Protein: Endoribonuclease YbeY
Organism: Uliginosibacterium silvisoli
Amino acid sequence: MKTTASTNLDLTIQRAIRASDLPSRQQLVRWIRAVGNGPAVLTLRFVDAEEGRATNASWRGRDYATNVLSFAYETEPVLMGDLMLCWPVVRKEAAEQGKSVEEHTAHLVVHGLLHLCGHDHEEGEAQAEEMESIEREVMARLGYADPYADEH
């Protein structure tokens, strides 16, 4: 499952769960391209809580399902990586935060892609603020609200 060669985006979408509200390929490409237009080879995998928990425990030593995990392989000359979104967690967080599932998913894709590009929010306050600033800018360009508006 790939986009046309002219976009320089090789996108594989894996749906390891059945859900009628998963984002469309068109939405995912739009969110990805809002972060950057450089060449990329990406896999986005939508999983259940069991797989999300097992992967988080295996790779990060955290025994719970988290919203998004990023696995970067290359950043230059082509961005290569995987994003795993745990769909039950995404849905739950959207409801808790009073956001649509679409808007919350867009934010998590943007957030995960920034990790693939080398950004981090766990290495210090300045880096966290820089990453959040980029996320706010990208989300605004996409027509969504500030994803951190109620957190600060």
About this structure: The chain has five helices and four strands. Residues 5-141 form a domain with the Collagenase (Catalytic Domain) fold (CATH 3.40.390.30). Residues 94 and 135 are 17 Å apart (CA to CA). Confidence is low (pLDDT under 50) at residues 1-6.
